[in-house]
Write a structure and sequence with these properties.
By secondary structure, the chain is α+β, with helices and mostly antiparallel strands. Helices cover about 50% and strands about 20% of the residues. The strands form 4 sheets. It has a 6-stranded antiparallel beta sheet, sandwiched between helices. A 5-stranded antiparallel beta sheet has the order 2-1-5-4-3. Helix 18 packs antiparallel against helix 19.
Length: about 575
C-alpha cells in the first residue's frame, strides 16, 4: 500500500472517529495537565453542560465541570489524581442550577501532557433512585399510626401528594360481608375544587408531612369526596362491575391503556367520574381486603406504566398497614367489650352481695319492728291516758309531750324499717304530680313552718300525667323533703320544680341551700342506714332509690359543699294503651 492510499485511509478513519465522537452519547474533554485548559471537546459535552463547544475549548476544566471560579477540592479533582500517578479516576459531579443533575466522570491519562475526561449524564438513573427513595419514604409513613382513619388518610395522601405518587384523586373500597363499600377518599370533586386545592398547597408550600400533620378526623369524614365514595356500595355478586371484576380476579388495571372486555360495566366508576384510573387490589396473607383506585381525572394524558408499578409497590406496604390497623381496631373493640363484661360482672356480684345483705337486714328489721311495735303502742296509749289526768302539773305535762314526741319518732323509724324490708310491688296508675306534691306540701306545712323553712314551687304548664304508685311516690318525696329539713338551718330554702324533659319523661328537682354533701360521703349516699345527719334512720334515700328503680325511673343529685344540694327524680310519662278494634 503506497503513501497516498495510507493517507486516504487515515482521513477516512479520522472522519469516522470524528463522527463517532460527535454523535457519541458520552461526552469527552481533552485537558492539559499543565494549565487545566480544555484542548478539545465533542458536541455531546456541549449538550450536557448547555454550553457551545467553542466556548468550552480553551476554558479551564473546573469552570465547565463545576461552574466554579476556583479549582475543585483536591480529593475530588481528576487532574490532581492523574498528576499523582493514577492512570484512571472516577467520580460523580452534580451540575445544573440546583446542583441536582448527576454526571458520571471518568478521567484517563493519554500521555505525559494530556488526559481525557469521559462524561456520562446519569439523570435517568438518578431519577429512578429518587423515585425509589420517595416510594420508600411514603411507604414508611403508613406505619406511623394504628388508627384506621389516620392510616387511610396517610395512604390516600401519599398517593395524591406531589411529594408522593402525584395522582389527582384516590379512593379506598373495603370488603364488608357481601359488598365492596367505599370508605374514604382524598382529592377534589371537580376541576374548580382541584385548582383551589392545588393553589392552596402550592401557595403554602405544603409538604406531605405538613398535610399529614394537619389530619383531622371530622374534616376527613365530612369531605365531599369521602361522602361521594361512601355513596358507592357494590354487591360482590355483580361480577361484571369493573371494581368487583378486578377485586375477585386480583387484576391490576390501567384504564388508560388496558383493553377491558366489552361485557364489563363501569357503573361504580361512573359514580365517581373516575374512568381515567388505575385499580389495584389490596391483598394480604389473610385474603382480599379491598380495592385502591387512583385517577388522573383532570388530565387527558395516559397514566405511565412506571407510575402504576410504583403504585402497586406502595399498595403492598399500604395493605399491610391497613390490615394491622383493622386488627388493632378489632382488638380494641373486643378489649372494650371484655372490660364492659368484667364491669357488669363486678356490678352483678356487688348487687348480689348487696341483695343478700339487704335481705338479711330486711328480715332482721322486720322482726325487730314487730317486736317493738306492740310495746310502743302500749306506751303511746299510756302517755295519752296520763295527759288526761286532771290537775297535771306543767312540768309533768312537758314530760308527757316529750314522751309522745319520741314515740312518734320511733313509730316513724319503725315505719321506715318496714317500708324498706317489705316494700310491696308498685300499683301503677296515672297521677298528677303537681297535685300530689301540692297535697304533700300542705300536709307538711306545719313541719316547714316550725323550722322557718321557705318553700317555692314551679310547675310547667300543661304537664302530662305520670305513671306511678301514688302512695310510694308520696313516700319518696316525703323522705326527700325531710332530708332537706334535717340539714337546713332555720330560715333555709327549698325550691321544687317539675317539668317535662322529653316525650317520655317528667323531672322533679328538689334544691336546698344547705351545707351540701361532703365528697367522702357521696358514694354511700343511697346505702341503707347511712346518714350524714344525727336525725333519722339513714333509710330515707335508700327507700327512695329502691322505689324509683321499681318505677323504671332515675334518681340522681348534684351537691357543692357550702352551696347546697339538688336531687333530680325522673319518672315515666303515662301513655294510654289504645285497643285496636
Amino acid at each position: 500500500m503506497n503513501t497516498e492510499e495510507l493517507l486516504k485511509k487515515r482521513d477516512i478513519i479520522e472522519k469516522y472517529i470524528n463522527e463517532i465522537c460527535k454523535n457519541s452519547p458520552i461526552g469527552f474533554l481533552i485537558v492539559s495537565l499543565e494549565d487545566y485548559k480544555i484542548v478539545d471537546a465533542n458536541e455531546t459535552t456541549g449538550k450536557i453542560f448547555n454550553i457551545p463547544v467553542e466556548r468550552i475549548k480553551g476554558s479551564i476544566c473546573y469552570e465547565v465541570l463545576h461552574n466554579y471560579l476556583v479549582p475543585c477540592p483536591i480529593e475530588d479533582c481528576p487532574l490532581e489524581k492523574i498528576k499523582g500517578g493514577i492512570r484512571e479516576f472516577e467520580t460523580i459531579h452534580f451540575i445544573g442550577t440546583n446542583k441536582d443533575i448527576p454526571i458520571h466522570i471518568k478521567a484517563v491519562a493519554l500521555d505525559d501532557k494530556h488526559f481525557v475526561i469521559y462524561i456520562n449524564k446519569q439523570e435517568e438513573l438518578y431519577k429512578q433512585t429518587q423515585e425509589m427513595e420517595a416510594l420508600h419514604y411514603i411507604s414508611s409513613l403508613v406505619h406511623r399510626s394504628l388508627s384506621i382513619e389516620e392510616v387511610m388518610h396517610t395512604i390516600l395522601s401519599a398517593v395524591t401528594s406531589h411529594q408522593g405518587l402525584g395522582f389527582h384523586r384516590a379512593f379506598i373500597f373495603l370488603q364488608k360481608e357481601d359488598y365492596l363499600e367505599g370508605t374514604y377518599a382524598v382529592g377534589p370533586i371537580n376541576i374548580e375544587e382541584a385548582n383551589k386545592i392545588w393553589s392552596e398547597i402550592k401557595g403554602k408550600n405544603l409538604s406531605l408531612i405538613n398535610i399529614l400533620q394537619q389530619f383531622d378526623k371530622r374534616t376527613f369524614e365530612e369531605a365531599p369526596i369521602t361522602k361521594l365514595v361512601r355513596s358507592v356500595k357494590i354487591p360482590l355478586k355483580e361480577e361484571k362491575d369493573i371494581l368487583i371484576w378486578a377485586f375477585l380476579q386480583g387484576l391490576i388495571l390501567n384504564l388508560t391503556y388496558d383493553k377491558i372486555p366489552s361485557d364489563i360495566t363501569f357503573k361504580s366508576l361512573d359514580a365517581l367520574n373516575a374512568k381515567r384510573a388505575v385499580i389495584i387490589p389490596l391483598r394480604s396473607a389473610m385474603g382480599n381486603v379491598g380495592i385502591l383506585v387512583a385517577d388522573h381525572a383532570f388530565s387527558p394524558e395516559p397514566i405511565d406504566e412506571k407510575l402504576v408499578r410504583s403504585l402497586y409497590a406502595f399498595a403492598l406496604e399500604a395493605t399491610s398497614a391497613l390490615v394491622n390497623s383493622m386488627m388493632f381496631e378489632n382488638l380494641e373493640e373486643k378489649t372494650k367489650a371484655l372490660e364492659e363484661a368484667l364491669k357488669n360482672l363486678k356490678e352483678s356480684r356487688e348487687r348480689l352481695l348487696q341483695a343478700e345483705r339487704l335481705s338479711a337486714i330486711g328480715e332482721l328489721s322486720s322482726q325487730i319492728a314487730h317486736e317493738i311495735r306492740n310495746p310502743l303502742v302500749t306506751i303511746g296509749l299510756l302517755a295519752t291516758r296520763i295527759r288526761k289526768i286532771p290537775n297535771l302539773s306543767e312540768n309533768d305535762l312537758k314530760k308527757v309531750e316529750a314522751m309522745e314526741k319520741e314515740i312518734k319518732r320511733l313509730e316513724r323509724l319503725l315505719q321506715d324499717l318496714l317500708s324498706f324490708s317489705s316494700q310491696p310491688k308498685p300499683k301503677f296508675m296515672p297521677i298528677d304530680l303537681k297535685e300530689a306534691l301540692q297535697d304533700l306540701l300542705f300536709f307538711m306545712e306545719d313541719e316547714f313552718n316550725e323550722r322557718s323553712i321557705k318553700i317555692s314551687t314551679y310547675f310547667q304548664e300543661n304537664l302530662p300525667l305520670c305513671k306511678a304508685d301514688p302512695n310510694q311516690i308520696r313516700h319518696v318525696f316525703l323522705n326527700l323533703f325531710r332530708n332537706a329539713m334535717n340539714v337546713l338551718p332555720k330560715g333555709g330554702k327549698v325550691e321544687i320544680e317539675v317539668a317535662q324533659i322529653d316525650d317520655d319523661w317528667l323531672q322533679v328537682s328538689i334544691r336546698d341551700n344547705g351545707p351540701g354533701i361532703p365528697e367522702k360521703f357521696r358514694e354511700k349516699l343511697f346505702e341503707p342506714f347511712f346518714s350524714t345527719s344525727t336525725v333519722g334512720t339513714g333509710l330515707g334515700l335508700a327507700i327512695a332509690n329502691k322505689i324509683i328503680k321499681e318505677h323504671k325511673g332515675r334518681i340522681d343529685y348534684k351537691s357543692e359543699e357550702g352551696e347546697g344540694t339538688v336531687f333530680y327524680i325522673e319518672l315515666p310519662i303515662y301513655k294510654e294503651v289504645k285497643n285496636e278494634a
